[in-house]
Batch of 2 targets.
Target 1
Amino acid sequence: MSEQKRIPQHVAIIMDGNGRWAQQHGLERYAGHIQGVESVRRTIKAAARHGVSYLTLYAFSTENWNRPAEEVNALMELFCKCVINETENLKTEGVRVKIIGDKNRLPGNVQEHLTRIEEQTAQGERLTLLLALNYSSRDELTHAVQQLARKVAAGTLNPETITEQSVEQSLYTAGYPDPDLIIRTSGEQRLSNFLLWQAAYAEFYFTPVLWPDFSDEEFARALDEYAARERRFGRVTNRNEERS
Ligand code: IPE
Ligand code: IPE
Ligand code: MG
């Protein structure tokens, strides 16, 4: 019997607490976002090292547009800078980047950078990095409903034949597995409009650590806790599965 630790295939992270980190250090909120990029870099490497196949990072929600324009603009600039600085490293590490969210509502230059990183990393086979940008679940589900309704209106889809799979295929995450583990930093214990459909059977890990302080050790702790959880998916414990 293998004693190997059960590793989640898909980890999703709500990277929260950049602003509070900056405040704690007497800095502007923007400095927290810059420091947060270091954690992103570290965590991508750690995920690949642990054998995680999919990593989703919540970077900007549709509600984050409601922040002061100064912060929103700074974040958009930071996304562009990251693409420019990180593409080569990601390619070397075998990371394939995909954006989930409504790209069309992002500034033109950000869209261009994102399309470029998706194209240039398309061959990555070690880890798929799903970047949730201008993402929210309700927005995603609204788009999915519109897409299905258009097909019904065009006469190419019979409403009676719509299944959970049809809905899934209309989401930004179409073709990717559901997250097994969702981590949120900064002590908040909520989803903030993240992967509401996909999280149906996810395990949750909440840590008070602020995102810029999220370390390899903290990530390993989350994986350890995940490995110790019993996932039942509505069934009763299966002794054979428990032993495998
Ligand atoms: C998360 O950190 C990053 C984004 C939402 C872009 P926050 O900016 O939300 O940090 P806090 O929650 O204010 O500390
Ligand atoms: C969630 O964090 C969004 C991201 C991490 C990108 P927020 O800081 O926006 O969430 P709330 O407002 O605390 O729920
Ligand atoms: Mg926050």
Target 2
Amino acid sequence: MSNLTRIGVAIDADLLEKFDELIEQRGYPNRSEAFRDLIRNELVEESWQSPESEVVGSVTLVYNHHVRQLNDKLLDLQHDHHDSILSTLHVHLDHENCLEVLLIKGKAAAVNQIANALISTKGVKHGRLTLSSSGRNLE
Ligand code: NI
């Protein structure tokens, strides 16, 4: 970590006690690391609001592969966006249900648009986009 600066924070004792319990549950070695993660998380979440910011996301889809033309539609969408989709994982959950995880990288607006198109495809039982950061500009 470059250029460390030490700061003092005034905080209510009860609030600090709750914070200490939380970070212990989560396994943080100390308050500093927990504070840094909180700050990074806020910065990353803020970046998602900007359509032009570079993000990475994972889309989880659960669908029934027996639904007519659903596989074709999902594959067509993926080929339409081959530049943005880095990788896909497909698991056959049981006789009819499939789990697919797609990793997408690009501008926030584009990643959201691709995810929404996949998730809203008729026959997809459940879909979720989880956004993260490209890691650039984060120490
Ligand atoms: Ni399958």
